[in-house]
Amino acid sequence: MLCASSSSFGHASMTIASSPLSRFVGTTLRYDHPARNLITTASASAYPLNKDSPRPKTYKEVTKPFRKIFAREISTQSKDDDISIAKVLLYIAAEDEAFLAFNREMDAMSFVREKENLQDQSDLIKTDSEEEQASVQDQSYPSKTDSEEHLLQLDGKSISEWLSELDAISKEVEAELVSRDIGCHSVQILEAVNTVLFDTRGFERTSKRLALDPKYSYLHSVLNSRCGTAFLFSVIYIEVCQRLGLPIVGARVGEEFLIWPKTENPEELFSEHSGQSLFAIINGRCVDDPGSMASDLTGKSLLGLDVATNRDIIGIALANLIRVHWRRASKPSPGLMLTSPLSQLNNTSVSNFPLLRPQDLRLAIAAAERLLILEPLNWRLRRDLGMMHYYVRQSREAIQELSICIAFAFDEEEAKVLTLFVEKLHLLSSLKSPFGSDRLAVR
């Protein structure tokens, strides 16, 4: 029910340096399975209607205010307990939707220009062109004076309205407890949460195949479609139970993210209640799956787990997005790894770039950039970001990230390979090539 498998998030595919997030990560970055569809919930509502706002020229101009808000919310000056996981995940979604809306409009404008250049257009084509041009001009962009409530729109709702969805779920759980005329023991609360989420509201966890669809990795989309990854259901549990006064903690166990009520007596989590342990009630079938590391947990071993902080959980969500978007971006080139060019230094050239989906690649880059705000010394993640910039043909950014990576790398052999690769990039960037373009086509 709630255990997050390897299909739910991407840390199983990336190695990260010794840091709070290092315990969530595997050893090799490999994204070689196809995803389904790109985010389908993105809409022009990411832009408030302000016709006096200047029209941005690049995606960076569009996403800059969103990124500033994200950085402020997870600032090291903030106490971890004061960070709202749900709010930050919604900020992440708002930035990505703003980028998608901008990219979509750029394509629409290009389409209009192409039609205007055609000779002997029919009246119907001219009418369509005028309508499309008008719809494009109706779009506007965030200005420095726009309030955050106006700026951060997701599917026509503000951040506070999406947070109210979680408030509504918690109130339904309270009503469920009252209707049963029972107390507030953690067992009853969690059973009531299950009833409201899965019976009353009809939420369901995605299959492993659907978990690769990016829309199931964004909190607002899960609340809207009532379908999502086990990891995001864990986040919903944490948020709802927090509103009910029941603190929930979690930790990465193998390829799963498990959660449980904070308690001084972990053994009670494994006592049987109505034929199930409390641990199974909240984490689902993985607890009884012999192939899962969760099946070996006891109250004593639970004490040895590293409990995830709010920043850690946000980091897991971002790593999930990197993995999902990279796998979709590399779908036209099955088996492609981010580090593949490092093992093919003799073949690196402008002409042998693999076929990638640039929009998905840009979304993966955005997730990696935000994760680096959380983990600035994470040199392997920085290496991966540099390689993504290489794939999107931004040599200057790639050289910058990889050069920083070389300075922090503890693996001498890998540092040598990266140095050779950076030298190759310097050579390539001096040639006339498509490096450095900000324009991304929608595919």
Automatic annotation (TrEMBL):
InterPro entries: SirB1_N. Residues 161-315 form the Protein SirB1 N-terminal domain. It comes from the Eukaryota. It comes from Brassica napus. Residues 134-144 have a biased composition (Polar residues). Residues 127-147 are annotated as: Disordered. Pfam families: Transglut_core2. This is Protein SirB1 N-terminal domain-containing protein.
